[in-house]
Amino acid sequence: MEELVDLVSSPHYLSFDATCGNQFGHNVITLQCTAGQLIKFFEIDQSVQRTVDETHVSDIQKYIQYWLEGNDIYFPPLLFSSRGLGNYSDVEHKYYLELDDKLVVLDGQHRLKAFEMIIKRLETRRDTLSQEQLKRVQNFPLTIQIFTDLTKKQERQLFTDINTKASKVSNTLLLMYSRESFSTDFIKEIIRTHPTLSEEDFETRGRSTRTKFLTAATLNNVIIALNEGRLNTEMTEIKVNTENYPLYKKRTEEFLKYLVKYAPDEGLDRDKYFIYVPSSLYGIAYFMHSILDKMPFIQMEHIFYNTVRVVDWSHNNKDLRLRGIPFNENTRRFNFSNGIRGSRIIASYLKDIFEGDEISGKN
């Protein structure tokens, strides 16, 4: 590659330690820079990118905030196309970029937008903590790979391949591998030491399960619904502390024990039954909290026996169709969305049963 005598003598460039390799016949420059540097020289070409998903950007901002709170996080390399800009010296092993040059993002626009928005927000604040966080975010190290000789058609193909084959890290995996906190330690304790369920009964890596009772992420939100009366679809911390720990643990262990005891024998077959669908679990837990909050001395098994045990948890339940839970006529199954509406319907349904209203959905 060309020597950079002219460029090196110019004060108007950025230089990075870098290596040059070859991937599938294309030159690729690999280097590390900071988030503060990177947001200054990236460009988005809509002809090779999708429209920005604001929800995805928000999720990544939460992930970065999670790091600011003291947890370890990881981002894979971001991919760019140079389109003839920048120069690599194979003598100095450096990559040089003029200050007004822009690299086109092939993969990573949501990560870049998230860093850009957090930096802009922190720049508007003058308190000491915000300024400290600003410096940390600006100096966050990111690895990037720059393809130097792609055509636009090849850029679009690379973008398509990446975004049709990649998958996000699950909330369950993030929770199980997060830095220790009272909240995450509590969940891990429940999974490790539950008196009637084994660790193998919980999914501790994947984002969903069809063979186990529930994921660690679902357990997190079940605990919140059961003990705090909050319905969540996003991951939030459990408000467990040294004072309420015994009650949280007792309730959670009993909930899981009686859930399994009074669920249908083939309840794990999600093609036949929906009791272990997250929306159902949240609804049951939320209902249990509402009863225990009013009648703290009632036995939880008594509630399960008179409600969960008598419900038809198959997809033939006519009551829940009438109450508004969507039903897919093609699959002949209930379609639970990611929201909390289905959970509220199930909680209300169980409350009516508990209070003595007749049910017709039991076959």
Characterize the structure shown.
The chain is α/β, with parallel strands linked by helices and 363 residues long. It folds into 2 domains: 5-165, no CATH class; 171-354, no CATH class. Helix content is 43%, strand content 15%. The protein is built from 14 helices and 12 strands. It has helices at 5-8, 35-38, 54-68, 109-123, 128-138, 152-165, 171-176, 182-193, 216-228, 245-262, 278-294, 300-306, 318-322, 341-354, and strands at 13-23, 26-34, 42-43, 78-81, 87-89, 94-98, 103-107, 141-147, 202-203, 214-215, 327-328, 333-334. The strands form 3 sheets. An 8-stranded mixed beta sheet has the order 3-7-4-8-2-1-6-5. The chain is elongated, with a radius of gyration of 26 Å.
Descriptive tags:
single chain, 363 residues, alpha/beta, 2 domains, eight-stranded mixed sheet, two-stranded parallel sheet, 12 strands, 43% helix, disordered N terminus
Summarize the structure.
The chain is of the alpha/beta class.
Number of strands: 12
The string of secondary-structure elements, in order, is HEEHEHEEEEHHEHHHEEHHHHHEEH
**Major sheet: order of its strands?**
3-7-4-8-2-1-6-5
Report the major sheet: 8 strands, mixed
Number of helices: 14
Provide the structure class: alpha/beta
Oligomer description: single chain
The rounded Rg comes to 26 Å
Percent range for β-strand residues = 5-15%
Shape: elongated
